[in-house]
Amino acid sequence: METPGSQSSLHRANLERVVRAVRLAGSLTQAEIARTTGLSAATVSNIVRELKDGGTVEVTPTSAGGRRARSVSLSGDAGMVIGIDFGHTHLRVALGNLAHKVLAEESEPLDVDASAAQGFDRAERLVGKLIEATGVDRSKVAGVGLGVPGPIDVESGTLGSTAILPGWAGTKPAEELKERLGVPVHVDNDANLGALGELVWGSGRGVKDLAYIKVASGVGAGLVISGRIYRGPGGTAGEIGHITLDESGPVCRCGNRGCLETFAAARYVLPLLQSSHGSDLTMERVVALAREGDPGCRRVIADVGRHIGSGVANLCNLLNPSRVVLGGALAEAGELVLAPIRESVGRYAIPSAARQLSVLPGALGHRAEVLGALALALSEMGDSTLLDGSLTAAAPAFT
Ligand SMILES: [Zn+2]
What we know:
Layout: H1 7-25, E1 27-29, H2 30-37, H3 41-53, E2 57-64, E3 67-74, E4 80-86, E5 90-97, E6 102-109, H4 116-134, E7 141-148, H5 173-181, E8 185-189, H6 190-201, E9 210-215, E10 219-225, E11 228-229, H7 261-264, H8 266-269, H9 271-277, H10 283-292, H11 295-319, E12 323-327, H12 335-348, H13 351-354, E13 358-361, H14 368-380, H15 383-388, H16 390-393
Parallel strand pairs: 4-7, 7-8, 9-12, 12-13
Antiparallel strand pairs: 1-3, 2-3, 4-5, 5-6, 9-10, 10-11
Helix pairs in contact: 2-3, 6-14, 10-11, 11-12
Bound molecules: zinc ion (ZN).
């Protein structure tokens, strides 16, 4: 037993701080590690040497601000994480290592009428396929991040009602998959994972306060505050789609009237164009037509942007994020939707709340959620496992 406050327990705590900082960032220079952890440059240098000798980290020469520096990342073969994303039409799985390198990724169509058990079967099979294709050692898998398109009760892990996978309500997806895969599984909704994905790999790199707005069959936001996802005690934070824009507007699925969602989500927007553009229209098609110059589609996209901008302005007044990232199919519309968003923000947000804001399209497209699931697995895994080498000792029960 180590005595708390003793020399050896302090040293251990410092080791864990450095490993955690590198694990979350992917790679950092020694100076960045010192800044992130608050440890002195000399202490960081000693700890990095020790971790390198033990095979936990890799050190490669790099340059920072024109000066030579050493970039530290977790050793590529120290462990693996898996991301699984159940989207509204696809199941996506990615396999990555602890140095934030994506080693393999695959997706297949998912039938919305499929039962939860069928969905989990397919996820399990796809995970097995990626592990086999990359030849990685199954015992090195440290954890799984899982994305579902609906609200997750933070305490019980139960999936709430979701319009996208209606048969799945009431299931406990993380528990179910943990039983099948034999490793810890961490679950979150698609908007939060999109935010994490863009934060770690995409348009949110380098910022600590970010909102990721996803417009699809609904409108949701994933909020990152001071570098962490903010979920709220019930996991409901970020329901930007139900901000009231017009009290006497259309009735929303939540029972309220004139929510942002009723002015921006596909199910409300597509009918506006169906009499002129045909009934089999999708949001992807509207975006493509708008880019080709179709005036009706351009008008609809611009209106959607203006309304989203009102919601973003409210968000700015409350949270003062430095970046808003627009995800989903709508992001493909580029300036056709981003300019009206910025215009509304300029009109409705108080100037000081929007001064440092940049509104950008997501960089990851449909991969944002599955990469966010990888980031979730990376952020939730403990460092003691890594430092003790028990990742290899306790082989998980993959079949
Ligand atoms: Zn609503």
